[in-house]
Design brief:
Elements (H helix, E strand, L loop, with lengths): L2 E2 L2 E2 H29 L5 H28 L5 H38 L1
Antiparallel strand pairs: 1-2
Pfam family, one: Ycf66_N
InterPro entries: Uncharacterised_Ycf66 (IPR010004)
Keywords: Membrane, Transmembrane, Transmembrane helix
């Protein structure tokens, strides 16, 4: 079992998943608002964002809870797999934040030029 002091590493990853799940909701709400306000948005893009809004935080919270309560049973290979998934989720959250910031900057520039 891989441990970080006395806490199993899988439990630490579970806590990170739960934090990402709670932090991801406001980001998704902001993205959903900007997508709906955009006049060039297609129905498919809105449906994708709504699906992402409901599915991603639920999966993060469930998997985080499972890792906290059952993570001590994981083999080292599964802990490595969870570490890779954690890096993937962190990348996606950072990418969504950057995408949201660039869209708001573009909208501000368009408003200033009008």
């Amino acid at each position: 079992m891989v441990t970080l002091s006395s806490i199993p590493l899988a439990a630490v990853i579970g806590i990170a998943y739960i934090l990402f799940g709670f932090l991801y909701v406001p980001i998704l709400i902001a993205q959903l608002i900007t997508v709906i306000r955009n006049s060039q948005t297609t129905v498919i893009e809105i449906a994708f964002r709504l699906t992402q809004f409901f599915v991603a935080p639920v999966i993060l919270l469930l998997s985080g809870g499972i890792l906290i309560f059952q993570g001590w049973r994981l083999d080292p290979m599964l802990v490595f797999q969870q570490i890779l998934l954690l890096y993937l989720m962190a990348f996606l959250v950072v990418r969504d934040i950057q995408r949201l910031q660039t869209k708001s900057k573009v909208r501000t520039i368009r408003l200033k030029t009008k």
